Please model this.
Amino acid sequence: MNKKVIISGVTGQDGSYMTDYLLQNTNHEIYGMIRRTAKPDYSNIKEALENPRFKLVYADLTDSQSIENIVREINPDYFLNFASQSFVGVSWQIPEQTFDAGAMGVLRCLEAIRKFSPNCRFYSAGSSEEMGDVVYTPQDLNHPIRPRSPYGAAKAAARHLTKVYRDSYNLYAVHCILYNHESERRGEEFVTQKIAKNVARIAKAIKNKETFKPLELGNIEAKRDWSHAKDFIKGVWLMMNQEKPKEYLLSSDETHTIREFVEKAFKAAGIEGAWHGNGINEEYSITTKQAGELDVQASVLMKINPKFYRPAEVDLLLGDSTPAREELGWKPEISFDNLVKCMVYSCLNEVGIETEKT
Ligand code: NDP
Ligand code: GDR
Model:
């Protein structure tokens, strides 16, 4: 018999990739959980919507009745919870909503599973933001929980709750720590996609010999351990299909600054830049040589805007994913350089600039 999988956050990056992966590689029936929004965006699940094994169901992590209803009615074999307010930067502005969906939402899912579907396997999307103010590098699962944002605190609470329910009720419930993962489907407020979109905008202006405004960023010294979301989805599915539930950490085991992402992204679009100035006055400008060759109408590609600094920053993230690699046989396949290229090329194609394939 086909298994039933509830995927929350199905319109987002990870939920949509997991949907595609399971539709392609299993015969399972997928129930994509969506909440009511004024203007729904189904762009990430266009293909899934055509598949008879995919259905949409309405529920909201902040509404326990709705979660109970879908779990009782569907009686799923898996509940993969990718939903949350996932933008760290805005979690200081909407802390209650972030905590409600991120922590209480996980509690609501666990309670519904305990009551109505105790054999259902539950995935809770944990984050390297739980490490926060790190005390050693690379970080592993033993690293202390030291969040720096309401978002990180919500994920930390979700981690404790998932363990409590696993231990108390013998549920297959795992909360895994995922380091940053990006893609062509990444939301536009996250730094990688913001850079990729702006690089494409500037590349188009340069091509058309038009003037342009620079990309504006906050802290470019922060270091992140970035991977492609497609690689992580495979790791999550492996974790959900072991004999016994166990927490894992997924990461590329490499770290790079935002500054480096900026340089590689402009380079992927054929734009050579150089840094000038210091601190909040630092800028990245097109090289004088290339500016002359291309007859550009503006020169500053990127500048700092302190409005994008956060009240507290996570400075350095670098994971150690050895247990996942050794025990699950998992490893990421898309390198950092290819991740940057995939994202920039996709944005260049969107503005009508042709690129090689990645
Ligand atoms: P996205 O922001 O792309 O997607 C989040 C999804 O959650 C959207 O579909 C959104 O729906 C939905 N959602 C938000 N609030 C609710 C709610 N109250 N009820 C139901 N659905 C809701 O996130 P990602 O795909 O990048 O991340 C997936 C999960 O993994 C998130 O929990 C995130 O915190 C976590 N994570 C992500 C990492 C990353 O680097 N991407 C790293 C570590 C953890 P809508 O379209 O209606 O807003
Ligand atoms: P992060 O991702 O906070 O790591 O959370 P984000 O891309 O938002 O920030 C990464 C780093 O870039 C710095 N930065 C900027 N960030 C944004 N968004 N916009 C800017 O203009 C900017 N300038 C500099 C940030 O300060 C930060 O240091 C992501 C999310 O997917 C979470 O849901 C997930 O849990 C973690 O990754 C792991």
Summary: Residues 162 and 168 are 10 Å apart (CA to CA).
